Amino acid sequence: MPLRLALAQINTTVGDLAGNRAKIIARLNDARAAGVDLVVFPELAITGYPPEDLLLKPDFVRAASQSLNEIVSATRGLTAIIGCVHVEDDLFNAAAIAHDGQLVGLYKKQFLPNYGVFDENRYFGAGQQKQVFSRNGSVFGVSVCEDIWYPNGPYEGQAALGGAELLINLSASPYHLGKGVTRERMIAARASDNTAFVAYCNLVGGQDELIFDGQSLICGPQGELLARGKQFEEDFIIADLDFRQVFRARLSDPRRRKRTSAAVADYEKISLRALPTPAKARSTTSIATPLERVAEVYQALVLGTRDYVHKNGFQKVVLGLSGGIDSALTAAIAADALGANNVTGVAMPTRYSSSHSLEDAEQLAGSLGIEFLKVPIDKTFQSFLDLLKPVFGARPTDLTEENLQPRVRGTILMALSNKFGSLVLTTSNKSESAVGYSTLYGDTAGGFAVIKDVPKLLVYELSRYRNSIAGREIIPARTIEKPPSAELRPDQKDSDSLPEYDVLDPILCDYVEANRGFEEIVARCGDPDSVRRVIRLVDRNEYKRRQSPPGVKITSRAFGKDWRLPITNRYQSAFE
Amino acid sequence: MPLRLALAQINTTVGDLAGNRAKIIARLNDARAAGVDLVVFPELAITGYPPEDLLLKPDFVRAASQSLNEIVSATRGLTAIIGCVHVEDDLFNAAAIAHDGQLVGLYKKQFLPNYGVFDENRYFGAGQQKQVFSRNGSVFGVSVCEDIWYPNGPYEGQAALGGAELLINLSASPYHLGKGVTRERMIAARASDNTAFVAYCNLVGGQDELIFDGQSLICGPQGELLARGKQFEEDFIIADLDFRQVFRARLSDPRRRKRTSAAVADYEKISLRALPTPAKARSTTSIATPLERVAEVYQALVLGTRDYVHKNGFQKVVLGLSGGIDSALTAAIAADALGANNVTGVAMPTRYSSSHSLEDAEQLAGSLGIEFLKVPIDKTFQSFLDLLKPVFGARPTDLTEENLQPRVRGTILMALSNKFGSLVLTTSNKSESAVGYSTLYGDTAGGFAVIKDVPKLLVYELSRYRNSIAGREIIPARTIEKPPSAELRPDQKDSDSLPEYDVLDPILCDYVEANRGFEEIVARCGDPDSVRRVIRLVDRNEYKRRQSPPGVKITSRAFGKDWRLPITNRYQSAFE
Question: What is the pTM assigned to this prediction?
Answer without folding.
Answer: 0.96
